[in-house]
Protein 1
Amino acid sequence: MKKVLLLTLLPVAAMATSIKGIGENYQDWDLVCDNTGTCRMAGYQEGDGSEHPVSILFTRAAGENAVVEGKLTILPLGDDRDIQVGQDIEIWLNGKSLGKVKHISDDVPDKLTEEQTKALLSGLKKESEIRLTYGKTTLKVSDKGAAAAMLKMDEFQQRLNTPSALIRQGQEKHAVLAPQAAPKIEAVSVNNHKTIELKRGEKQFKHVLALLRKAYDGCVDEDLESQDITLYPLTQNKVLAEALCASGAYQSTNYYAVLDDKLSKVEQVLADQYNGVGGDRKQGYAFVRGAYKGRGAGDCWSIQDAVWNGKIFILTSEWTTGSCKRFPDGAWQLPTFVSDIIVK
């Protein structure tokens, strides 16, 4: 097989950081930490069937003095909506009220107070009942898996047995994980947005298809040749070729490859981890995105983006929306890799 440049999971620029993000699930709780050292811990209603979708998110950056921020989100149900903007939500821990939070918006999560956050984290160290009440509605947030998620967060941030640990506190004086700056990744502006369609059966289509097949053999042959190939102009006399790689019941993957503008050779293969191409309208740079459903309902996604830096496409973000818990498009953005994009 012809040797081409394959896009790896992490860009070269990210190698400067010593932190690799993680994503773990513990029953009804997710724990996701990114390459800056920030961890996000999300808990949901028990099960994923007919229960009313509700979630609490705890976020903590790396660093000894980093505080934990708490948020909650509720999916309004019913034609008449069971929760209204401006309505108070009362939080209960083991039968004791922790006070109320005002539902400000359906689009922005409601913030917990510092006292509510501390009380919930303390209660979740052991078996506890968390309830949210408003109007005639009572919702429960599961405690199953919360203690394990907190322990993993402490381990990732190197807090075990130190005073700043959430669950296994101690008096050890060793340094905890220091926060890392997000890597800076350059993106080059692409001024030409005119695409070219290579029609099936035409000579140029067959030529490019042969190049793509020679560079990567991981696609379904029938799918690869079933649709036209689209060419997107880049910079430095390069183009991005887009072809269908494999189609499934509720999602598909595309085959992306960077070629010279004479269509004589493949210079980079992005293969089948992406399924969409686009551009930032304000900044003008090109990117590809992989957005994949965890199941047909579309209530949980994994997403990654890569931008054109003038030579190759390079990964800029990787995140999940959390567990499949009936929130349309997922409950949260939980990144394992973040970066700062600099447009030149």
Note: The chain has two domains: 5-13+183-343, 18-156.
Protein 2
Amino acid sequence: MRIPRPNLPVVPSQRAAWLIAALAPVALVIAAALPQFWFAAPAFAVLVIVLVVLDGLIAGPCEEWDIDAPVDTEVGAKTAIGVHARFAHRAIGTPEAAMACDPRLAEGGTVRLRLEREPDTRAHGGFAHAVPVRRGTAKITRAWLRWSGPLGLGMRQQARDFDKEVRIWPNLAPVRSPALQTFLRDAQIGLIARRVRGEGTQFEALSEYEAGMDRRRIDWKASARHNHLYARENESERNNQIVFAFDCGSAMCEPVDGMSRLDRAITAALTCSYVALKGSDRVALFGFAQRPQVFTPFAAETRAFPQLQAAAASLDYAAAEPNFTLALATLTTRLHRRSLIVLFSDFTDSTAAELMIESIGRLVERHLVIFVTISDSELEDFAARPPDDLAALARSVTADTLLAQRNLVLQRLRGLGVDVIEAPHEAIGYELIDRYLAIRSREAIG
């Protein structure tokens, strides 16, 4: 995009400022030791000003420049944002650029980069890698470009307004991982449209027992009637309803290793939902804070996975305590058959978790529930750290007390019949997949 060439003023660079600062003591020494040469100091100043102006004029104007930013990216993924510029003259220093953007795209809402010369041209280009920290639509609103002459003393600068949008989606790196794709390719769930015998517990047919079969599959009653050994062939359970429910309240908005707990939970849920869709199960997403936010229709095919991703991207962050009573009661009224409900949540103390425990207890009466929470590594570090002073001792005691309360809440959930997963953020996705496959294999959902 070509822009007009305004007569930009030339300003001193940082190098010019340091040069003037270095010459100031020299001028004072000359003025004190050789008063007759007092004119040397003004002469030096004029010389530096002339060099600054000449250097800026040699740099010349910028003919055109623009920002190169992706339309879509994922939270927590390195995102390349570039600037390309073409200058009137080749004899310039290293150009620099800065951009003002939404803080969810880059820390502090600022991206800075240097531009390198492209071979045999007057064009320069450069990229910086920003790491989005939250989902949503981030805008790049303004950018600055500055460059100097060959001496690096005179600077020129241009500023432009932009309206570039970058949509930040949930992170699907685990779904694309070679390990998961290999597992799904080799797994015998949902790959072809036929009944898979030998798995699950739902009876399908009887077959003659052969050497090498599991002896636990022998149907002794049928074998006694036919005076020959027969084995049961079972059918894999399919078409289960799985709901991934997200607490979008304040506790889930706290960051863990650079990303919020909510975004970590969404990544784990989408990874498991992809596996579930491959296994011919039906998946829905449910999000809530003080009131329900999102409840998607059940998706039954892998081609509906982008719709789940878009729904997960719409889950908003809420700086308030969640209303578990309203949310889980709403969820219960919308489910007309027994389902597997995977609830992602967190809590700060046992008192705040009382309503959550009570609501989950009512949910367990009709459905199978998995409660997923990210382990608090910060509290564990405080509790394990040697108490070198009184402040460290106080932190250690407080952290140990909070961990004890946390374990008490998780034990109460287990006592209600809830399957609890507590793991580091990098492991919850795989832990959840293992737990889902184990539940599915024993026909515990339908």
Note: The chain has three domains: 1-169, 173-179+238-441, 197-235.
Protein 3
Amino acid sequence: MATNSVSPEVLAAEKLVEEIPAKRKADLTAKAQNRWMPKNFYASGISECDRQMVHSLLDWDKRPLADAGLQAIFEAGKSEEARIVRMLSELGYEVIAQQNPIQIRHPKTGEIICTGKIDGKILVGRSAVPMELKSMNPNAYARINSVDDLAKSPFYRKYIKQMQLYLYGNGEEAGLFIISDFRNIKVFIVYLDFGLCEQILKQLERCWDYVKAKKYPDPIDRPDVCQYCPFEFLCTKTTVNQGASFLESEELEQNVARWLELKPMKAEFEALDEAIKGPLKDKDILNAVIGTKYQIVGRKQKRTTYDTNLLTDEQREAIKQETLVTVYKINALEETK
């Protein structure tokens, strides 16, 4: 009588289906658990909030640990940097001074208050042009077409400050940003701005003085900055003096767990949405059949906007309305330990 048997190859394949993702997640999680005590500020982390800067040194051990997903993004970014350097070499450019360090010292004490490493320099004749390599998701990449676009976001303005310190620290007058979406690149020039450098240096000195005194500047009220701050839970005025409320709700707990699962998909959806609709918008296509299964139909509609830049300061003040809102940040408890 014949018996149904499963071959060793099938059993091995079924085992790997579960084993590989589990091992990958465990590996990323283990790498993400590493913390180290910084000795000074980093050029790549010049925030627009002095308090965040001070927290980064005084409360480094309270910074939430990265999860496996974020660690995977870090690793992808490092791999992309190496790929771009190889690409430049294949195009005939010589890249030197990779990870060349800079040091910024306090003008009064001589202490090293900020360090950084530039991604490299491209040799052009007798000149060596500093470069910084930045990778981002396709949705963000599509919006960034100049240094001015980087300056529109407090998150990306850190890149500009980082480059300014590198130019200042190396005595260079100009450098390059090479931006990547892991497939394409854009190249922007950045000129040394002594005025901006002076502001950054003053901020570093000011924040260092707070660190030495073990004191904190006042919190700022900037949602566009606070949403990216890993220390927001330490300084938000409306929560810092409140004890935690312990809620027993199985439904709420399940909803939060599902929310955390879906959160990474939002960025992927937005990137795909732009990748699909962007080319159609560029060519003004309103009706497109994709292959044999899909159709995309667009329509033009009027949208009314108001340019407040045309108003005087008095007019803006007259129509300004301030509303107190509550903003929540959801964390997994094991990630904040």
Note: The chain has two domains: 32-240, 249-298.
